[in-house]
Amino acid sequence: MSAIGMLSASRGKGLAISAYADVRHEQLFFERQQSLALRSMEWEGRIKPLTSWSVLIVRGMAVAILASAVMALLA
To answer: Which of 6, 22, 40, 64 sits in a 20 to 30 Å window from 53, CA-based?
Structure first.
């Protein structure tokens, strides 16, 4: 048994630190995400978001199907 387990067992209470933690919702986000002023700046629109894996897989499958259809017609 750990030292914390022995300590909590001797007092007869369970260890529940997280239940008493004072965490507010605004503390869970970075300052950059909270600021609407920064989000509307001119440099925010320069970089396009990354393409998801599912879109890349679907595009790759479409190219493979198209290539195999062209190969089947030429053979």
So the answer is: 40
> In the numeric block, which tokens belong to residue 33?
């995400």
pLDDT digits (tens, 9 = 90+) for 10-28: 555 565 556 566 777 666 6
Single-letter amino acid code for the residue at 35: S
State CA 8 to chain mean position distance. 36
Domain spans, the chain? 51-75
SS3 21: coil
pTM here is 0.40
State the Cα–Cα distance between residues 2 and 58, nearest whole angstrom.
51
DSSP E strand boundaries for 25-70: none
Residue 8: other Cβ atoms inside 10 A: 15
